[in-house]
Design brief:
The protein is an alpha/beta fold and 382 residues long. The protein is built from 13 helices and 9 strands. It has 3 domains: 127 residues, no CATH class; 40 residues, no CATH class; 179 residues, von Willebrand factor, type A domain (Rossmann fold, 3-Layer(aba) Sandwich), CATH 3.40.50. Helix content is 47%, strand content 13%.
């Protein structure tokens, strides 16, 4: 497979692509990643078209994955390439991941430029994934928006009372009898049924106060992607000095149109924070009636509270009794030496099941995995 340095670079690039695909809802499992690396060992991994088809034929598991794969690939490497005639197997490429300020430059013209641009685009995306959203410039924020548009929030599965056909489970006597009558008294198998599974409702409470202004746009775009690309029914609220339900505004298919509609509907951009009062308002009007019951409720906030922290603690305990799980994503958690000492965060934390970071694209990917129920035991309150 060539020298170890080249193999590492190719694998690193493929793993980064697969990680972004998983955030978009494509099950790019480790064995599929391995198959893509093997395919690139026979192809030209510095050529965009070879990388595209190697990934599409190995990482996608169904026809539904192809559209998501195309979206992610276009953001990760540049535009989707046109089909081309097969060529002889090329020598193992050396993909050196060198930071590039502009991933869009990866759409260059001649073959030599393409070989340089492809790893540079991958590198720029990987660097962008880990960077704090608050530190991004205009070009990086545009790239971040394209990546967030490909996000998916599948939701944690729950078993319902309704039964459906299944390979395992209790015997479906009525259907088994019909099969027996149809087969003249003999049937090769017993018909079975089991309880259906559905994703739990997800409720997103996005803090758009002044202390969260650097993150508010990205978090709302995350909420928009969750509303459209996820399989779970999703409700979105903003919290600041007022509580605003923006689920209807998030219904726009276009993210920019949804953001414009939300900006028109939200009266308290970059204001103060009254988390306790607004959480009480949410529970009184919507949560207690059923929206929060059995749901995964996600609070995206830095925890700064101008009101009474005791009220926030009371309402968080009330929310915890209603919801299936309460997740809190705090962008400040990633900062060195951070401790949840702010009065609001300290009051809320005892009623939080999962306390995670929310400062970067990679952190939002991990948040999506936590919402889906993955790695819950690994999340701590530290």
């Amino acid at each position: 497979m060539g020298d170890s340095g080249a193999a590492y670079d190719v694998t690193d690039t493929v793993v980064g692509l697969a990680r972004t695909l998983r955030a978009a809802g494509v099950e790019a499992t480790p064995d599929r990643v391995h198959e893509m690396v093997r395919a690139l060992d026979r192809l030209d991994g510095a050529r965009r078209s070879d990388v595209y088809w190697a990934g599409r034929l190995t990482l996608c598991g169904s026809a539904d994955d192809i559209a998501r794969y195309d979206d992610v690939f276009a953001t990760y490497f540049g535009e989707r390439p046109a089909p081309r005639a097969p060529q002889q197997a090329a020598q193992r490429p050396q993909l050196r991941l060198v930071a590039s300020p502009d991933a869009e430059s990866a759409t260059g013209g001649d073959a030599g430029a393409e070989r340089d641009a492809l790893p540079a685009a991958a590198s720029a995306t990987e660097v962008l994934r880990e960077r704090d959203i608050a530190s991004l410039d205009a070009a990086d924020r545009a790239a971040l928006r394209r990546l967030l548009a490909a996000f998916s929030l599948p939701g944690e599965r729950r078993r319902t009372r309704r039964l459906a056909r299944a390979h395992r489970g209790r015997v479906d006597q009525a259907r088994t009898m019909r099969l027996l009558l149809r087969a003249g008294g003999e049937t090769p198998h017993l018909a079975r049924r089991d309880r259906r599974e559905r994703p739990r409702r997800v409720v997103l409470l996005v803090d758009i106060s002044g202390s969260m202004s650097a993150y508010a746009d990205a978090l709302l775009r995350f909420a928009h992607a969750a509303s459209h690309r996820g399989r779970a029914p999703t409700e979105v609220f903003t919290i600041g000095t007022r509580l605003t339900r923006v689920t209807r505004e998030m219904a726009h298919r276009d993210a920019d149109a949804a953001m414009a509609a939300a900006a028109h509907a939200i009266p308290d951009w970059s204001g103060g924070t009254r988390l306790g009062e607004l959480l009480k308002a949410f529970l009184d009007v919507w949560g207690q009636r059923g929206m929060a019951r059995g749901a995964v409720v996600v609070v995206l906030s830095d925890g700064w509270e101008r009101g009474d922290p005791a009220l926030l603690g009371e309402q968080m305990a009330r929310l915890h009794r209603l919801a299936h799980r309460v997740v809190w994503a705090n962008p400040r958690k990633a900062r060195p030496g951070y401790a949840p000492l702010a009065a609001g965060m300290a009051a809320a934390l005892p009623s939080v099941d999962d306390f995670v970071e929310g400062h970067s694209l990679a952190a939002l990917e991990r948040l999506a995995a936590v919402v889906a129920g993955a790695g819950r035991r690994e999340v701590t309150h530290a």
